[in-house]
Amino acid sequence: MRTVNLIVIHCSATKCNRRFTVNDLENCHNARFHNKGVGYHYYIERDGQVFQTRSEDEVGMHARHYNAHSIGICYEGGLNENGLPADTRTPAQKQTLRALLRSLKYDYPNAKIIGHRDLPWVAKDCPCFDAREEYRDLQPLALEQ
């Protein structure tokens, strides 16, 4: 098992009124990454269904310079009907994402949960909500000095 110290949350940056299924994601990433598969480890569709799209033991392709020690999760959406960044997660996606994060924290208790936008040099709104704040209760406890 590889060392994982980050769980990075992404959005697919697709409009909330248009579907972008796991099959669409696979086609998009295979074209982008020369048939190396989906870059994220998990994908959550609007109905809350979660798909494991890459083994956790395999390094992802979702956060340049951070892939070796991270798990990538992506949810379908992230743009409003006009194509502007927005937290478009459905209640089902929110529920599934929290359950998935709890499960991952069991395996990787010291991993910090962040949004893609929280990484240095990232100039995107992805995942279009404050992941650190929303999942503060799941973050590792700071070591006392």
TrEMBL record:
Cited Pfam families: Amidase_2
SMART domains found in the cross-reference section: Ami_2, PGRP
SUPFAM superfamilies given in the database record: N-acetylmuramoyl-L-alanine amidase-like
GO molecular function terms listed in the Swiss-Prot or TrEMBL record: N-acetylmuramoyl-L-alanine amidase activity; zinc ion binding
Record-level GO BP terms: peptidoglycan catabolic process
InterPro entries associated with the record: Amidase/PGRP_sf, Amidase_domain, PGRP, PGRP_domain_met/bac
CDD domains: PGRP
Domain (Peptidoglycan recognition protein family): residue spans on this chain: 1-120
Gene3D superfamilies: Peptidoglycan recognition protein-like (3.40.80.10)
N-acetylmuramoyl-L-alanine amidase domain span: 1-128
UniProt family annotation: Belongs to the N-acetylmuramoyl-L-alanine amidase 2 family.
Protein name from the UniProt record: N-acetylmuramoyl-L-alanine amidase
Species for this entry: Xylanibacter ruminicola (Prevotella ruminicola)
